[in-house]
Input
Amino acid sequence: MPDQTTGSRPTLEAVAARAGVSRATASRVVNGGAGVRAPLVEKVNRAVEELGYVPNHAARTLVTRRNGAVAVIIEEPEFRIFSDPFFEQQVRGISRELTAHDSQLVLLWVEGPGDHERIARYLGGGHVDGALAFSLHSDDALPALIDRARIPVVFGGRPAPGIDPAVPYVDCDNRGGAREAVGHLVGLGRRAVAHIAGPRDQTSAVDRLHGYHDVLPDADPALLCQGSFTEESGARAMAELLDRRPDVDGVFVANDLMATGALRTLRERGVRVPEDVAVVGFDDMASVIDRTSPALTTIRQDIEGMGRLMVKLLMRLLDATDGAAPASVITPTSLVRRDSA
Output
């Protein structure tokens, strides 16, 4: 029960007195410091609960040298962040893992070069302990800005060449997943397998394109079309493919949103799926799959799990005493068979 003997807020001195320890010992326990024996930790924690003591954030920062906050930076326009469920799932994983580490998420997004200096000033101002950055592009200035701020960072997705290879990242096996998707279509007997690729300035799209070529190295260039990871771009790309190659009988689409658009175009053109054209996507996001008809066969990646892994790597980086960065992580993918292929 909170202390009712006074109307004032309980102090650290009161906690120390209730627990029968010195103020310094109480401070180390309350603020997450090390070197206190377990019985004393238990006494202090019990006193905190009994008195209803709330730690002072500024004091905690002095002891732990931590702000208890992490910047999550997304290099995409606002409309993409709120319309693409990929970002929702990844941020959910990040948020849940940060909560487990008693840390706060600070969401920043970069819509254009005009945002760079603002974010650089914020990162360099000592407001956050580190940063998680994803949806990077090959000509991105963001990695250099984070490096200039001198804060630990973990990237979501394999960074483009030229970025410090020592910086850890979390990604899925984009190339292997693409190989499995295209191999599945070929195994169904499809002879004209097309690919709707994502933006060439993002490594995930490039890796999935390479996976397609691993299986079909001599594919007709007319079977390749590019989208922008949005539903509308998938619809346009599918229409272009049908106009170029009316004989197309299989399509590997670089993400589920574009695959949804491709299915819409096929339906509008009177093309049967999977009888005439088999379709495989990439992501396996329930909120997208639930509105596909027929139900989309796709490559599953653990999007929320990758968000959690990014936080775990960052915490290991923050805790490292020798400055050594943890190894990057590539998570596995798997084919989820449904009705479209």
